C-alpha cells in the first residue's frame, strides 16, 4: 500500500500540521507516503519534519510547465505529463486530497494511474458551499458532489455532513464521519497555570481569523479586570502588519506580543504557564489535551464572542458562525472574567474536563478510518479538460467571491 497526500503548500497551519502527523502514522504502518505540494512553498521546519516520514514532490515536477513560475494554476495550464506522473507515482494505491483544487488534481492523477481511489478532506467547510457559474467552480462542485454521494469524503462530524448534504440536495445519506485526531500517547498534561494571567492566541493572521483583532481591541477591558494580563499571539499572515500597527495605536505593545510562526512540536512549551488559550480547530484540541482551558474562536465573527470552552461545545462542527444563534454566543471578556472568579479547585476541574474531551481523538484511529473509506474502490466518470479548468481559475481569481473562498491562500499567491 502507498498513499499520496495532496496539499496546497506546507506552511504552518492546522491542516498542514495534521497531514504531517498523519504521514507519521502512515509511515509507522509500513506505508511511507508521498506528499504532493501544488507549489514549491513551504516552511523549512515543517518541511524537514515531513521529510522524516514522507517523500515530498511538487506539482511542477509532473506537469509540462517548463517556463512559468512554480504556481499551482500555472502548472495546470500546461497539463500533466503522463510519463512523469506514472514514474513518480508508481505504486500509489490511495490518494487523499485536502481541498477543492487538490481534488481536481487528485481526480486527474487517479485517471492517469489506473483509477486508484481517492478521498477529499473537508477542512474548511465554507470552501465547498459557495456557488459560482465560473467553469472551474462547476468542475469542483461536480467532483465533490460525486465524492459526497460515494462517501469518499473526510467529514469531521454530523453537523458538517448535514450542511453539505443539504447544500448539494442529496437527502440523508449515511456517510461515515470522524473528527481530526492528534498524537496523544506522548502528551504530558500539565494543566493551565491558575496564578498566571497569560493568554495565548494561536492562528494564522488572516482576515477570517477575526479573534486576533478582537482581542486587541478589547484587551483594555481585560486589563480593567486584572492589570497583570498579557497576550502572546502566535501566527503569521497578511494581516500581521495591520494588527501590529493596531497594537501600537492602542498603546498595548507592553502587554500584547507577537511571537511569529509556531511549530506544532512547540505547542506544549508555548502553552506552559498559560492561563487560557484561544483559537479554533486543531488548536482547541491540542490545548485541551494538555489541560489548558481553550476558548473556541469562530471564524469570520465580527464580534468578540464565543460559544464557550472547547470542553463545553458539543457540536462536532463548531467553527461555522451560522450554526449559532445570538443566545449561544457569549462575550469573551465575560468568559475570561468568570474564569478569574473560579477558585483553584474549580479551575482544575475545568482543566480536567478539557482533557476528557480529547481522550478519544487519537490520530492513529484516523489512519484506520481513512483505510475504511478507501477500501471500496470507486471511479468517477466525470470528464473535464484540466487546462480549461486552470484558465477559468486564473481568469476568475480577481473576483470577490473567489477571494472570499480562498481567504488567505489567494492573498499569499500560492495558487
What does this structure look like?
The structure is a single chain. The protein folds into two domains: 3-181 and 366-411, Rossmann fold, CATH 3.40.50; 198-361, Glycogen Phosphorylase B (Rossmann fold), CATH 3.40.50. The protein has helices at residues 14-28, 44-51, 72-77, 82-88, 100-112, 135-150, 158-167, 211-225, 240-249, 267-271, 282-289, 332-341, 344-358, 363-374, 386-395, 400-406, 408-411; strands at residues 3-7, 34-37, 55-58, 94-97, 118-121, 153-154, 198-202, 230-234, 256-260, 276-279, 294-296, 305-306, 330-331. The chain has 17 helices and 13 strands. Helix 1 crosses helix 14. Mean pLDDT is 89; it is low at 406-412. The strands form three sheets. Strands 3-2-1-4-5-6 form a six-stranded parallel β-sheet, sandwiched between helices. The two termini are 30 Å apart. The chain is α/β, with parallel strands linked by helices and 415 residues long. The chain is globular, with a radius of gyration of 22 Å.
Fold blueprint:
Elements: E1 3-7, H1 14-28, E2 34-37, H2 44-51, E3 55-58, H3 72-77, H4 82-88, E4 94-97, H5 100-112, E5 118-121, H6 135-150, E6 153-154, H7 158-167, E7 198-202, H8 211-225, E8 230-234, H9 240-249, E9 256-260, H10 267-271, E10 276-279, H11 282-289, E11 294-296, E12 305-306, E13 330-331, H12 332-341, H13 344-358, H14 363-374, H15 386-395, H16 400-406, H17 408-411
Parallel strand pairs: 1-2, 1-4, 2-3, 4-5, 5-6, 7-8, 7-10, 8-9, 10-11
Antiparallel strand pairs: 12-13
Amino acid at each position: 500500500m502507498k498513499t499520496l497526500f495532496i496539499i496546497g503548500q506546507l506552511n504552518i497551519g492546522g491542516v498542514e500540521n495534521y497531514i504531517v502527523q498523519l504521514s507519521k502514522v502512515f509511515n509507522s504502518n509500513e506505508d511511507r507516503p508521498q506528499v504532493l505540494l501544488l507549489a514549491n512553498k513551504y516552511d523549512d521546519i515543517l518541511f524537514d519534519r515531513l521529510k522524516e516520514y514522507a517523500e515530498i514532490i511538487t506539482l511542477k515536477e509532473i506537469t509540462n510547465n517548463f517556463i512559468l513560475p512554480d504556481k499551482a494554476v500555472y502548472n495546470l495550464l500546461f497539463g500533466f505529463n503522463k510519463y512523469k506522473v506514472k514514474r513518480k507515482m508508481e505504486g500509489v494505491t490511495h490518494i487523499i486530497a485536502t481541498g477543492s483544487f487538490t481534488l481536481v488534481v487528485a481526480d486527474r492523477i487517479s485517471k492517469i494511474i489506473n483509477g486508484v481511489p481517492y478521498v477529499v478532506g473537508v477542512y474548511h467547510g465554507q470552501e465547498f458551499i459557495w456557488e459560482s457559474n465560473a467553469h472551474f467552480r462547476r468542475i469542483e462542485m461536480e467532483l465533490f458532489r460525486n465524492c459526497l454521494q460515494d462517501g469518499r469524503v473526510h467529514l469531521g462530524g454530523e453537523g458538517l455532513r448535514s450542511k453539505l448534504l443539504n447544500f448539494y440536495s442529496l437527502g440523508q445519506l449515511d456517510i461515515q464521519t470522524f473528527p481530526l485526531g492528534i498524537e496523544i500517547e506522548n502528551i504530558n498534561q500539565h494543566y493551565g497555570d491558575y496564578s498566571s494571567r497569560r493568554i495565548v492566541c494561536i492562528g494564522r493572521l488572516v482576515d477570517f481569523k477575526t479573534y486576533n483583532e478582537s482581542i486587541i481591541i478589547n484587551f483594555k477591558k481585560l486589563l480593567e479586570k486584572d492589570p497583570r494580563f498579557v497576550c502572546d499571539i502566535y501566527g503569521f499572515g497578511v494581516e500581521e502588519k495591520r494588527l501590529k500597527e493596531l497594537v501600537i495605536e492602542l498603546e498595548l505593545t507592553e502587554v500584547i506580543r507577537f511571537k511569529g510562526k509556531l511549530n506544532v512540536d512547540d505547542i506544549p512549551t508555548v502553552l506552559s504557564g498559560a492561563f487560557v488559550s484561544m483559537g479554533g480547530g486543531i488548536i482547541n484540541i491540542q490545548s485541551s489535551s494538555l489541560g489548558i482551558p481553550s476558548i473556541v474562536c469562530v471564524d469570520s465573527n465580527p464580534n468578540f464572542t464565543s460559544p464557550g470552552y472547547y470542553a463545553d461545545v458539543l457540536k462536532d462542527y463548531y467553527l461555522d458562525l451560522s450554526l449559532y444563534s445570538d443566545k449561544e454566543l457569549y462575550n469573551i471578556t465575560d468568559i475570561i472574567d468568570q474564569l478569574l472568579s473560579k477558585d483553584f479547585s474549580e479551575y482544575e476541574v475545568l482543566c480536567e474536563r478539557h482533557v476528557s474531551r480529547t481522550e478519544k481523538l487519537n490520530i492513529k484511529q484516523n489512519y484506520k478510518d481513512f483505510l475504511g473509506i478507501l477500501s471500496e474502490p470507486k471511479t468517477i466518470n466525470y470528464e473535464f479538460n484540466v487546462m480549461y479548468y486552470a484558465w477559468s481559475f486564473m481568469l476568475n481569481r480577481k473576483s470577490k467571491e473567489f477571494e472570499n473562498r480562498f481567504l488567505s491562500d489567494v492573498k499569499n499567491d500560492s495558487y
